Amino acid sequence: MSQHPINIGGLVMNRLMGSIGDVVSQLKQRALSSMELCEAALQRQDSVARLHPFITCTSDVARESASLSQKRYGSGENRGPLDGIPVAVKDNFCTSGIQTTCGSVMLQNYVPTYSATVVKRLQKAGAVIVGKTNLDEFGMGSGTIDSTFGPSKNIYRSGIKYDLLLSNREPDGLDSRFPTAAVEDEDWYVAGGSSGGSAVSVASGSTFLALGSDTGGSVRNPASYCGVVGLKPSYGLVSRCGLISLVNSMDVPGLFGRYVDDVAAMLSVVSGLDPQDATTVPSDLQSLQLPENPSLEGLVIGIPKEYHCPGMKKEVIDTWTKVADLMENCGAQVREVSLPHTKYSIICYSVLNPCEVASNFTRYTGVFYGHRVESSHSMEAMYALTRSAGLNDVVKGRILAGNYFLLKENKNRYFKQALKVRRLISQDFDKVWSSGVDLLLTPVTLSTAVRYSEFNNVDNRTQQATQDFCTQAANMAGVPAVNIPISLNTEGLPISLQLMAPWGQDAALLSAAKWIEQHVNFPRLQVLE
Ligand code: GLN
């Protein structure tokens, strides 16, 4: 398997890169204990710390949960489906008693008194929370370079030593076709964002699963750059209670894992009605198990022509065509379809996002939460000083833009028009589904991960909007979408594709994603440190 010396610690470390199913069976057979697994995860977290995936390491909480899990394995009683499995949580989900910062000065000392529903459900299923992950401030960004705690870096070509394994399930050797060495001059690749910390935590084996949030692509974008599976579930399938709001009508908790089956296991635990989130629906996915060998027979796959957008790299288009052909050769019917309003999605998002941001961010006044800058002049001055010091320029820019779009004299011209365009974007999807299409296959990002030096200019920082071209429409329509790693390019960086499905068809979406995963044989990264 790997060429580094095998010892007990090393064996546990390697298991960090297996699938949850494999690890749970090791735990059941007592070939491995929850405590060993937890320690290995914490150790890995330490060894990749220079990539900065985590804002907070929750080692005490993790050890406590792992020791309870170990007892449950000992007694064989009351075990949950994720018992003993290390999980990371994006730092915009409330965690009771654990600092929840949103990557912002505003909340850097905020310790919630309750946990998000998804966090509670993971803990009830036996998961071990190992840390809170880094993000662009409040989830605004596509790079995880705009956190007040500093950026997260992509693991690929970062200088962290890793092997690439030829086959995901039966490693029979190393894949030496691709470069793995650190790029020169430390000009690192971005992790993508805003859930870049979660993506890196999973890619590096610091955890098996991670929670992210996806408002316009924040789970799929970093999953694509980091070569992991990233699911944005149907809007309403997973509770937002305790997810700190960005754009309520588009936000969804998203799920990261290295294998599609792992993400399915996580979805079955976190999905379903929550009385504390009125937008949730009952779910029948509680015991979701994907078929061992999913089939494409009878499936109609749509290729939306408008997703061939300017700036998309040839290697991304080639990968897209290759996978479409592969699916066609294996029983699916593949046809070109049209989503004519796609070209308006970025501009429409750029109005709707700031409007909801402007409204949501009125709560950060220094009175109720976190940061406060005192003023001896007036209450208003205290608000202004607090907001000025507590929020970064991206957030402040969106608050200003949103308030402008919502001015009495502007509301009809911007906000209401954008809502109408959103409806057209959503209806495009409905028309495609009702023409008999089951799933859509598209790229996720226009290129592989970009270098920090290319990314970090003023225009890009506000949104990196072009990289979100293929992801934002799904949020506006509320449909589920998943990132699937496909291959590495000549630089050794992941290229991924996206599948989208009609609202509520998350299980069918994941089955097809698993089919792709099984047929493309993406080279698996295994950390050696
Ligand atoms: N990049 C988009 C933005 O900055 C999407 C962010 C997200 O999905 N949270 O708004």
From TrEMBL:
It catalyses: L-glutamyl-tRNA(Gln) + L-glutamine + ATP + H2O = L-glutaminyl-tRNA(Gln) + L-glutamate + ADP + phosphate + H(+). Residues 36-154, 189-510 form the Amidase domain. It holds the Pfam family Amidase. InterPro entries: Amidase, Amidase_CS, Amidase_dom, AS_sf, GatA. It is an enzyme of class 6 (ligase). Allows the formation of correctly charged Gln-tRNA(Gln) through the transamidation of misacylated Glu-tRNA(Gln) in the mitochondria. The reaction takes place in the presence of glutamine and ATP through an activated gamma-phospho-Glu-tRNA(Gln). This is Glutamyl-tRNA(Gln) amidotransferase subunit A, mitochondrial.
